[in-house]
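Hi all, posting the design record for the shared folder.

TITLE: backbone redesign
STEP: 1 of 1
STRUCTURE INPUT:
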């Protein structure tokens, strides 16, 4: 057997004979039935031809698959880009709508507050490292801004007061600052107290209401507003609501934690109260309706407390 495979001429002769038989079978198939040689040739060539065709179809399928995957990826990326663009436009429109709403509230506030002269201002600097105790506005001495004037938001919620004034700027100390002190009144019971900034509570964006007697009628959910005492803040400016009431054993008095209604951390525009009169000041009630405060003599916000 080994000699047979080593005899190359004999192998070539046998191979040539097989090829000749196949060729003869192919040409004679048109005139007669398939011969044995043709059957043999068909048997030999058909599996090979089928295998080649199958491999071709397989490669074609793979090529088509990867082509479709690439197309889908490109389409997916295009849709993602389009979605990002649309989301950006939506965010921009929402920002414009929010600014428009704020400006409308500010205009409405100006129209309603006939007894308060206010100056609109933009917040130009706010340092979060001091826990929003102070910020700077773009109004100053040339606009009539003076030290100790009250500052409110677009809903007339108290924000703080002017602490320092420059030619075209002013610094506002907020009610969160430990140095802040405001005379307040509990809206429901008309009890009087002092609202102070607290070095611990300011981290939570809250204030402390102190100097109230043990028998003071105060409870969670009560709203507090400026009392008008001290001639700095107009009476009836809403400040916030009571979220906790507790006893202070050291002073035998009560104290409360107040959550301001003004969103001091996200202020963009504010109003500086340049002057006011304590007559017919309408204020927000706890249910959103407006009530009226008692009238009093004219006051000026420029006087020191």
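Okay, here is what came back for every position:
SEQUENCE:
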């Amino acid at each position: 057997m080994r000699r047979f495979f080593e005899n190359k001429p004999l192998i070539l002769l046998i191979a040539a004979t097989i090829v000749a038989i196949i060729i003869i079978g192919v040409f004679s198939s048109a005139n007669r039935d398939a011969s044995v040689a043709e059957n043999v040739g068909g048997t030999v060539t058909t599996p090979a031809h089928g295998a080649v065709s199958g491999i071709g179809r397989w490669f074609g399928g793979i090529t088509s698959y990867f082509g479709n995957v690439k197309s889908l990826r490109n389409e997916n990326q295009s849709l993602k880009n389009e979605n990002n663009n649309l989301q950006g436009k939506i965010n921009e429109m929402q920002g414009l709508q929010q600014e428009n709403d704020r400006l409308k509230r500010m205009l409405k506030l100006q129209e309603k507050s006939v007894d308060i002269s206010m100056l609109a201002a933009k917040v130009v600097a706010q340092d979060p490292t001091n826990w929003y105790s102070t910020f700077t506005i773009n109004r100053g001495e040339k606009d009539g801004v003076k030290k100790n004037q009250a500052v409110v938001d677009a809903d007339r919620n108290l924000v703080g007061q002017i602490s320092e004034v420059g030619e075209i700027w002013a610094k506002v100390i907020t009610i969160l600052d430990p140095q802040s002190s405001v005379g307040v009144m509990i809206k429901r019971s008309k009890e009087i107290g002092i609202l102070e900034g607290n070095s611990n509570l300011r981290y939570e964006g809250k204030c402390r209401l102190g100097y109230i007697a043990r028998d003071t009628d105060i409870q969670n959910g009560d709203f507090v507003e400026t009392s008008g005492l001290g001639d700095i803040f107009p009476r009836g400016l809403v400040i916030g609501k009571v979220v906790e009431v507790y006893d202070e054993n050291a002073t035998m008095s009560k104290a409360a934690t107040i959550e301001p209604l003004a969103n001091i951390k996200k202020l963009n525009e504010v109003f500086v109260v340049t002057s006011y009169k304590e007559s017919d000041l309408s204020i927000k009630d706890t249910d959103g309706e407006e009530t009226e405060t008692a009238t009093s003599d004219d006051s000026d916000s420029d006087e020191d407390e």
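COMMENT: The chain has two domains: 1-112, 116-299.
Let me know if anyone wants the other runs.
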